[in-house]
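step: validate -> pass
step: tokenize input -> pass
step: predict -> running
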Amino acid sequence: QVQLVESGGGLVQAGGSLRLSCAASGRTFNWYYMEWFRQAPGKEREFVAAISLNGAITYYADSVKSRFTISRDNAKNTMYLQMSSLKPEDTAVYYCAAVVPGSRWDYSDPRGIDYWGKGTLVTVSS
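step: predict -> pass
step: emit ->
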């Protein structure tokens, strides 16, 4: 089992930047695919970004592509989400997530997540 703790959320003006971190403890961090999801008030949880075991492969939602960058440091058991050119519609609780590798990785489906963090709130003001 792995425990995930997000940090780095806060209030930022539109056009600004934030970097989220996800610290993992428990099982070996590099055993897991890692992802970010977000959930805005009144909306369903949605996929943001995903990264492979060694960080070589990344996936992004169309809405954040070219603005957000996912990365991981396996030596520090930490994943990051660098967010830039933030928009008010990026306002949400951002969740860190871990997936145990299996035969198929449907990275955009929250039903495939094995472990969730508790989330960190990002608020983008206009």
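step: describe -> The mean pLDDT is 95.
step: cleanup -> pass
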